[in-house]
Structure prediction request, 134 residues.
Amino acid sequence: MTEKIVKTPEEWKEQLNQNQYEICINHGTEPPFSGKYNDSKLEGVYKCVCCGERLFSSDTKFNSGSGWPSFWKPISENKLEYISDTAYGIVRTEVNCNKCGAHLGHVFDDGPKPTNSRYCINSISLQHEKDNDE
Ligand code: FE
Prediction:
């Protein structure tokens, strides 16, 4: 079982900048092609920007053309929380960090083999392990 991190909105506001709060806590979406990891070829692990949990490896990153960093699988399934999202009258699967609940993005079933999954993740929700800027 993942040990959960629970923080109040005030605590998150103190820790995060305004964009991070909007995406991760208010379940927002960054504009396509705006995020710093969309085209990133950095090798290594992408962590949750809110709690540091190791979520995705660069080995599973691919160019989906969507404008968001895309991965065909997480480091392990128990890193993520999957929620049915029916906003805008369409059914999508939202993915959140299983440790802290931060919103990450959505997963679709039109990805590459072997999983056919496309995890479409906001750059703002991620922090690459070799990237020290905010
Ligand atoms: Fe997290």
Summary: Residues 48, 50-51, 53, 97, 99-100, 102 surround fe (iii) ion (CB under 6 Å).
